[in-house]
Amino acid sequence: MWGISVKVKTSEPRRYDIVYKQSVMTEDIFLQMGNKSPATSSCEDIVIKIKLPDTKYADVELNLTDKFLDCRTPKYKLGIHLPHPVDSKNGKAQWDAQKGLLSVTARMIREYDFMNF
Fold it and tell me: Which of 21, 60, 77, 111 is least surrounded by Cβ atoms within 10 Å, i.e. has the fewest?
């Protein structure tokens, strides 16, 4: 009726995922003898998976500190404040060229308490 058109800018989809990882043994799963639970409080590692399509490994610049991850390429820039402090000196990064996926794994540094053991 009025001929008004509205253009809505949609933000780009998130290019990263944060996944928690824990090591479990058979007694944790089948016998439930361990103190592990499916909650993140029982996890030891954090994995940040960053999608970088059309990117070469040589173009990726990665910097990991105890509380911040900085990933830069000519096309993408990403800065993430981590939910938990990590051991940045012993982290590991893995590049999957077919998927354009960078996976950064680091051990979380946490105080032990009744939830986190």
Answer: 111
pLDDT attached to residue 52: 93
DSSP code string of 7-56: --PPPPPP-EEEEEE----HIIIII--SS--SSGGG--EEEEEEE-TT--
Higher pLDDT, 35 or 102: 102
Asked whether residue 37 carries a pLDDT value surpassing 90, the answer given is no
81 in Cβ contact with 67 (< 8 Å): yes
| Cβ-based neighbours of 3, under 8 Å, separated by 6 or more | none
